[in-house]
Amino acid sequence: MRSIVGTLTVALALALALALAVALALAAAAAAAAAPAAQARTLHVGPGQRYAKPCQAIAAARPGDVIEIDARGNPYRGDVCAWSTNRLTIVGVHGRAHLEAAGHNSQGKAIWVIAGNDTTIDNIEFSGARVPDQNGAGIRQEGANLLLDHCYFQDNQEGILAADNPASSIVIDSSVFTRNGAGDGYSHNIYINHVRSFTLRYSYSTDARVGHLVKSRALRNYILYDRLAGEHGTDSYELDLPNGGLSYVIGTTIEQGTNTQNPNMLAYGEEANLNPDSHLYAVNDTFVNDLHHGDAIFVGSRVTDPVFAENDISTGSTKFVAQPNARRPHDCITSRPGFKDPARNDYQLEPTSLCRRTGVRPGSAQGFSLAPRFQYVQTASHTTRTDGGTVAGAFGS
To answer: Whole-prediction pTM value?
Structure first.
């Protein structure tokens, strides 16, 4: 009997010890998992702060940190840098923080060269980037995943230039790009190379110098509720998707000015090496061609799937969609669309406009709703749209 009891006592002790070890291991694992969040800090930049300049704080940052840049220290001149730290959030406070290149650059590329992943930049202005190869950008994005919100890019050779990264998704929200471009035709307001997806929404791109207002080679493109306007600039295409891809252009005003370098407005799939699943859906957009020449939508000869254009307004172009098999059943193509005040770039419709009666509910395509839910508001903002797309064009009210 004593032998059996002793054996049970030893077994119980071993079980208790094992349970305690497991509990301690689980607690240690939970603490390790929670450590990054617990260690996240807010670093302050500006007059009277620990860091006088943004790049000092960026160099000191750890993954997950937030960096607040005080706009009262504007402009931050010549402060340029590169980093590979992941999950940084950089925010302008007390106004929009302004980074002015002032003749400096990082790595011969940009004001900021971002090699880290999962970066958020909010309320920052970038200006004056110049480099010898004429690709000086406000931001050169090389890591995976970037969110820009309420940012401003002006007078750079490139506004933003994103390098090839098939794991990357880039989102630009409520931002402005103006007067970027080196004047060589190869530098643009926005240039996104081969990435997984690119989203531009509620944003304003205007007056590029010879280059495009927006150029993207992404596998998927979501151009939603924007204003792309040549106006007084010398831009080429207003929107260029040279490698095609699954692309949705919804609720966007696209205006071509008289000083354009190319008469076509939206170019799709005009280069070799089309991306897989090259389908273009252009729904409830407003195309205004002040040049009165060229195509609203120019489609490359390698694109075999028909472009789907629904509920759009097109005025001033020689052709609306330059593709014989394009599907465009309910578009309003007219020389008299009935805009409220086109001289002041107000392309909302008068109550008597015939384009108010041409639209239908556009449904969805490949799991993505084509019905416009918002409409653009100048500058780089938006409001809710309630008609579901039954009014043609980018504005439902």
So the answer is: 0.91
